[in-house]
Amino acid sequence: MEGAQYTISSIIIIVWLVFPGVVFKRFYYQGQFTKQFGTGLFADRLITSIFWGVFVQIITFLVYSRALNFTFIGIEADVEDYYKKLSENELPLVSSKTLIYLLGYQIFLVVIAVLLGTVIHKTIRFFKIDVYSDVFRFTNHWNYYFRGEILSTSEFKALKTGKWTSTQVDVLIDDGTEKNKMVSGYLTQYTLSHKTGDLETIYLTSATRYSHTHSKFISIPGDCLIVQFEKVVDINIRYNQIKSTINIKKTISNIILVMGFIVLIYILIFPWYLNIRVVNKILGVIFAVFTWLFLMTALSFPFQSSNNPKMTKKAFFICLAVMVVFLIFTLICLKLMPFMD
Amino acid sequence: MEVIKLISSTLGNILGSYFNSDMDVMSDEAKKIFSNKEDRQQYIDAVEELQRSPDKKEKTITLSNNEKITLVS
């Protein structure tokens, strides 16, 4: 009996706490930081997964219980009964309605984990919180050096003269001869080792090599030079910067994008607080997202450089019309139309 | 048809601005410059000129789309 209890507890911890935590971390460590997801001590990864799992679980429960109008106290007796039956090695009697609720909860749990992981990652990167604060910094330090983000830190601030555009690298390669080979070029890509997370390869364009005979750098014919980092002795990084100019169109466009993101979060949450059927809430959210998408598209037209202003104007009005149609559907689904009961 | 293309490309840009990776080691400006052979050469020459002469702090180049950018050292 005790063995069965341990098994059930383990399954509950894995499915309800570790799994959402793992999904959260998978989407938090994305892009060039993805290698951090699988590195580190197993115990450390397990503890952090449980921590984030609890966080995701709380958020999911709050939203799900609010959407389906139930409370923890309301379902406590049923949960206790199911747990008791399972620990006694008996199959609890679960109605099809409860089963659908449980499956829905499980799907919602994964969705919330994905959303939270992505939103937190994007927020940290957008506001450069990881650049300014060591606590939030990802372990892939190459990203900060190669993207010139290190120039925003207090240690390198003096080197920042403008806006970073590209990174040039001078690499000393051990080619087995007495005189090592030196190549230089504009960095276009890099890869990290799957196992260790160390720098594996760098890709250079407009590459040149130092000629000992001519005592100068000469062009290397080709479009892309691939350098294996294991053969690199030294690496020198040079940042190319341009004068920052205030682009009003781009600034307004960015403000619209940020405001749009806040509105999107609101329209994803707001319907769940309405006293309507779940189907209406789901359809309302879907139509609201389409309304948002066409509104954002219409708003972005005035800030685009167009060769055909007449066509842009036409597209703007079409987007507005489509947006109004989706808005009507949204209001109908959410029962927010003024003339509806 | 052209309107639909324009709307779909703008829709794509909107979604792209939220979901695109910010991990590229070349900025959007540099990518645009490097995609044009003449602009690329102008940019490389300007960078080299700035690196050769430490006294020179700025170098302005005009791209093929008449956009002016000023490189600083």
In short:
The complex is a heterodimer of chains A (341) and B (73). By secondary structure, chain A is α+β, with helices and mostly antiparallel strands.
Shape of chain B: elongated
Number of helices of chain A: 9
Output mean pLDDT of chain B.
86
Percent of residues of chain B in helical segments?
Answer: 55-70%
Radius of gyration of chain A: 27 Å
- Overall body shape of chain A: flat
Order of helices and strands of chain B: HHHEE
The helix-and-strand class of chain B reads alpha+beta
Question: What do you see in this structure?
Answer:
The complex is a heterodimer of chains A (341) and B (73). Chain A is an alpha+beta fold and 341 residues long. Chain A has three domains: 2-132, no CATH class; 141-242, Roll (SH3 type barrels); 248-333. Chain A has nine helices and six strands. In chain A, strands 1, 2, 3, 4, 5 and 6 form a six-stranded antiparallel beta sheet that branches. The longest helix of chain A is centred in the N-terminal third of the chain and has 31 residues, at 96-126. The model of chain A has no long low-confidence stretch (mean pLDDT 87). With 73 residues, chain B is α+β, with helices and mostly antiparallel strands. Chain B has a domain at 38-73. Chain B is 56% helix and 14% strand. Chain B has three helices and two strands, in the order αααββ. In chain B, strands 1-2 form a two-stranded antiparallel ribbon. In chain B, strand 1 and strand 2 form a beta hairpin. The termini of chain B are far apart. The interface between A and B is large, with 43 and 32 residues. Strand 6 (232-242) of chain A pairs antiparallel with strand 2 (68-72) of chain B.
Topology:
The complex is a heterodimer of chains A (341) and B (73).
Chain A: H1 2-28, H2 42-67, H3 72-87, H4 96-126, H5 129-132, H6 141-146, E1 163-173, E2 181-192, E3 199-211, E4 216-219, E5 225-228, E6 232-242, H7 248-269, H8 278-300, H9 309-333
Helix pairs in contact in A: 1-2, 1-4, 2-4, 7-8, 8-9
Chain B: H1 2-19, H2 28-34, H3 37-52, E1 58-62, E2 68-72
